[in-house]
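Supplementary Text 2. Reproducibility record for the structural model of the 103-residue chain.

All settings were left at their defaults, and a single model was retained for analysis rather than an ensemble. We include the record here because the model underlies the residue-level annotations in Supplementary Table 4.
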Amino acid sequence: MHVVHTAPTAAPRPTPAGPPGAVVWDTSDATIAKVVVNSADSTLCEVIAPGPVGNAQVTATADADLGAGTTPLITTLDVTVVAGQAVAGTISPVGPAEPIPGV
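Retained model, structure tokens:
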């Protein structure tokens, strides 16, 4: 399972202010909630549940000071991964298509 997340802005909407620099993402337990930062936009990340069930916390840290100073803006996301019955799947071909003999 995976979910794409975005970092919060430094000011309430609709003010266009946002984190002026890179957002730093982290997780308390990468075995439960792995964070993959978008290489083109650090305000976006994908949170992946690679396997075991449990709880983890994802944090996004940015600079909320719109001037030359630094004011940390730290936001959190609590993630709970639970076991569940499969509800969907994917069928994938294995190998190249081959002609049917005699046809």
